[in-house]
Amino acid sequence: MSVFDVVKKNLENRGFSVSCFKTAAEAVEHMNSQIDGKTVGMGGSMTLDAIGIYEKLASHNEVFWHQRTPEGKTPNEIKAAANGADVYLSSINGLAETGEIVNIDGNCNRIAAILYGHEKVYLVAGQNKLAKDYEAALWRARNIAAPLNTKRLGRKTPCAVRADKCYDCRSPERICSALSVLWTRPTACDYEIILIEENLGF
Fold first, then answer.
1. Considering the entire predicted model, what is its pTM?
2. DSSP string, 68-84
3. Residue 41: phi, psi to the nearest 5?
4. How far apart, in Å, do the first and last CA atoms of the chain sit?
5. Percentage of residues of the chain with pLDDT beyond 70
6. Strands across the sheet with 130-131, in order?
7. Which of 88, 127, 128, 138 could form a disulfide bond with 41, CB atoms 3.0-4.6 angstroms apart?
């Protein structure tokens, strides 16, 4: 049994729908075929940027993504619209083989949207997001994903300067304000976990 088979089984045991794909292109076609004529929100994500899902969905849906803020709008306006959309897409900072899903956020618009308020939530993860168990997934989110994202954003924090681990700093430029852990599927909407056998995002 492959590691993806293990993760899929454990996520399904926690109530999530799971789809596995060899390539990002296959995953994008799957989501694009399912989401049509909807309002769609997207969280800040290098994974979603890398797979090009925005361009596909925007051709037949109304998509709100602050990484593509249109002229005349502010990122905060787009984030608010995204949080009220029919469908929401996000990536994952750490995914335990045992099935726990870990995300860290600064503004907290992304983790707020993941938890409640949509018809369906898609959570996308490349194979590099996998970790052995919950403790390892949490460690990955704090010590790999957060420092790399902080450095990408040009913030002046210890983790951004050294890009090696979380220093639990008190910097005003810190991007890890809150943590969400999905132990099981929340009951208010549908969730589909998209697993891709490629390294994607941080």
1. 0.96
2. GPPTT--HHHHHHHHHT
3. -105, 145
4. 26
5. 100
6. 130-131, 94-96, 101-105, 178-182
7. 88
Which positions ≥6 away from 157 have C-beta within 8 Å? 150, 167, 169, 171, 173, 174, 175
H or E stretch covering 8: helix 3-13
Residue 1 has pLDDT above 80, yes or no: no
pLDDT at 62 over 90: yes
With beta carbons less than 8 A apart as the criterion, state whether 146 and 159 touch.
Answer: yes
CA nearest to 53, candidates 26, 81, 18: 26
| Spatial distance between the Cα atoms of 143 and 83, rounded to a whole number of angstroms | 27
Helices then strands, each counted (H, E), the chain: 9, 10
**What does each C-alpha distance from 174 to 43, 94, 168 come to in angstroms?**
18, 19, 9
Nearest Cα neighbor of 86 from 194, 190, 199 is: 190
Pairing of strands 17-21, 39-42: unpaired
Q: Does residue 19 sit in helix, strand or coil?
A: strand
Residue pointed to by tokens 């789809």: 19
Identify the three-state secondary structure at position 175.
Answer: coil
Q: Residue 126: phi, psi to the nearest 5? A: -80, 170
Answer yes or no: are the C-beta atoms of 78 and 69 closer than 8 Å: yes
Contact predicate 167/98, CB 8 Å: no
**Cα gap 151→146, rounded to integer Å:** 9
